[in-house]
Write a structure and sequence with these properties.
Elements: E1 23-28, H1 32-36, H2 38-49, E2 54-58, H3 66-71, E3 76-84, E4 87-95, E5 98-102, H4 109-114, E6 123-126, H5 149-163, E7 173-176, H6 183-197, H7 202-211, E8 213-214, E9 216-220, H8 231-238, E10 246-249, E11 253-257, H9 262-265, E12 275-278, H10 282-306, H11 311-316, H12 318-332, H13 340-355, H14 363-366, H15 370-377, H16 379-389, H17 394-406, E13 410-411, E14 414-415, H18 422-433, H19 439-450, H20 453-456, H21 466-480, H22 482-490
Helix pairs in contact: 5-6, 10-12, 10-15, 10-17, 17-21, 19-21, 21-22
Bound molecules: nicotinamide-adenine-dinucleotide and D-Mannitol-1-phosphate.
């Protein structure tokens, strides 16, 4: 077997691959998720449904991966590992649909601008993280480029409108994949705001509304990303060097809220993909965010402070695994509107996905921005539970307390690499530095955090008993350690489902 440094670098000169397809998709974002999910599906549609579509990727920020992507002529490998119909499956795909990457901040500016004039362009997809669909008041039409993603899109659409003289046949289908609620509506609203702010005229606004289709979408696939721990072994197995390998699970679901004619244009069903084009995606979103993402965010501080590093280790663990199972079954599912039996089947699948023995999903990679994640993923279940039961959901409250202790930034004396908004880190830093290790001190700290209305959009001290119960857990976790506290909370005997 060749040594890794003797392997050829992946590119179109070294490997015989399909001819570049016509560029019909413009993609904002070159991150792991889009490459392992959207582009992987587009590649399948090309190969199995004759879609004949290339993707040009635009880097939404000045720093990013398009240079690396271009060194590989847009090629990269997706490795999907997991269980499929009870069998362990591993699948390598050389994704060939990406034609090139452009960095609009550098010398690629004119190529980027010229994208607006491509007659064959039909779709825009994006994933710029939850932070990306945001209005930037400083953006101007003449910027090269606008700072925000919606600003870039608004300017590009306006150039297209001008170039094609408002031709209704040259509108685009825009499908954002950011994990924010009603992402398509949110993006459209900001684009319209720029149209107004930049005084682009009523004709442009009508063209935006009538010739273009903004879809809301929900994405689901766990993508741990670049396999840094085993890249040497993987490259040796692949037989080439690829700096953009991305690892994900087998499971995938893309729910697109949009018109039924989209099925004709996006032949996902012909490629056997799990894409649903629906009139209302709300039930899919709620169940995913509250069960899957909610479980991720709830287990992260508990598992990490317990000494566990991955989601797999957490769900395998007797105490932590049972804790998370009962949190989902007893405290989240009863708060959702869909039938419990259906939700329990979904939860079974989620837990099976978390067990995926082939993928190491580090909880620290989920921990980024945990405060806002708790607000969107866990707080709605907590509030609903309180309303229904007139009592607190014990496990969810414990997880909230664990989160506060996580933001102390120490595990067994070692620093935790916290990543959140500066304001969040500063507030926790100040409060923890003043903590004296007493229950009174824990109460003071907890009351301050629960009272941050800008974080939670309400004062959580108003929820009966929440401050006391959270403070008690904070005190115990800091004085006895996570292991002893959780073991005694659960009686170390919570049955596994
Ligand atoms: N990795 C997963 O398992 C997974 C699964 C489903 C959804 N997601 C969502 O996808 C998002 C991206 O995940 P990833 O794994 O691809 O991350 P990544 O770090 O590989 O890519 C992030 C991308 O977002 C862009 N970006 C970051 N901040 C931005 C901003 N303020 N404005 C514009 N662009 C910005 C970056 O330039 C980059 O293109 C996450 O926020 C997550 O919500 C991830
Ligand atoms: O990607 P984030 O950081 O928003 O959240 C971490 C995980 O909860 C998330 O990536 C899930 O794995 C994903 O949403 C599954 O589809």
């Amino acid at each position: 077997m060749k040594q890794v440094d003797e392997l050829d670098q992946l590119n179109r000169k070294s490997f015989i691959v399909t001819e570049p397809y016509p560029e019909r998709v413009l993609q904002f974002g070159e991150g792991n998720f889009l490459r392992a999910f959207v582009d992987w599906q587009f590649d399948k549609m090309n190969k199995l449904a004759d879609w004949n579509t290339g993707v040009v990727i635009v880097q939404p920020q000045a720093g990013g991966l398009v240079e690396k992507l271009n060194e590989q002529d847009g090629l990269y490998t997706v490795i999907l590992e997991g269980m499929k119909d009870g069998q362990a499956v591993k699948e390598h795909t050389l994704v060939e649909c990406v034609t090139r990457g452009l960095n609009p901040y550098g010398s690629d500016w004119s190529e980027y601008e010229a994208l607006s004039q491509k007659p064959e362009l039909r779709f825009v997809v994006s994933n710029t993280t939850e932070a990306g669909i945001a209005y930037g008041p400083e953006d101007r039409l003449e910027d090269r480029p606008q700072k925000s993603f919606p600003g870039k899109l608004a300017a590009l659409l306006y150039k297209r409108f001008q170039f094609f003289n408002g031709d209704p046949g040259k509108g685009l289908v825009i499908i954002p994949c950011e994990l924010i609620d009603r992402n398509g509506d949110a993006l459209k609203e900001i684009v319209l705001k720029y149209a107004d702010q930049w005084k682009l005229g009523a004709e442009f606004t009508s063209w935006l509304e009538e010739a273009n289709t903004f879809c809301n979408s929900l994405v689901d696939r766990i993508v741990p990303g670049y396999p840094k721990d085993r890249i040497t072994e993987i490259q040796a197995e692949l037989g080439y060097r690829d700096s953009l390998v991305v690892v994900g699970e087998q499971y995938h679901l893309w729910v697109i809220e949009g018109p039924q004619w989209l099925k004709e244009e996006l032949p996902a069903h012909l490629a056997g993909l799990n894409v649903l084009i629906v009139d209302d995606m709300a039930p899919y979103r709620t169940r995913k965010v509250r069960i899957l993402n909610g479980a991720h965010t709830a287990l992260t501080p508990v598992a990490y402070l317990y000494g566990l590093d991955t989601v797999g280790q957490a769900v395998e663990h007797d105490v932590v695994g049972a804790f998370i199972q009962s949190l989902i079954r007893e405290e989240v599912i009863p708060t959702l509107d869909s039938p419990a039996a259906e939700l329990n089947v979904y939860a079974d699948d989620v837990i099976e996905r978390f067990h995926n023995p082939y993928v190491s999903h580090y909880v620290m990679s989920i921990a980024l921005n945990s405060i806002s994640k708790f607000k969107t993923r866990n707080l709605p279940s907590l509030l609903q539970y309180v309303e229904q039961h007139k009592a607190l959901p014990v496990k969810t409250v414990f997880s909230l307390a664990s989160l506060f202790v996580f933001y102390r930034g120490k595990r067994d004396g070692d620093p935790i690499a916290l990543a959140d908004e500066a304001e969040v880190l500063t507030a926790f830093g100040e409060l923890w530095s003043g903590y004296d290790g007493t229950l009174a001190g824990a109460k003071q700290l907890t009351a301050q955090i629960l009272g941050k209305q800008t974080w939670w959009e309400q004062d959580l001290n108003q929820i009966a008993g929440l401050a006391e119960q959270t403070a008690q857990h904070v005190y115990e976790i800091t004085s006895r350690g996570m292991k002893e506290t959780l073991d005694s909370l659960t009686g170390n005997s919570v049955p596994r489902a």
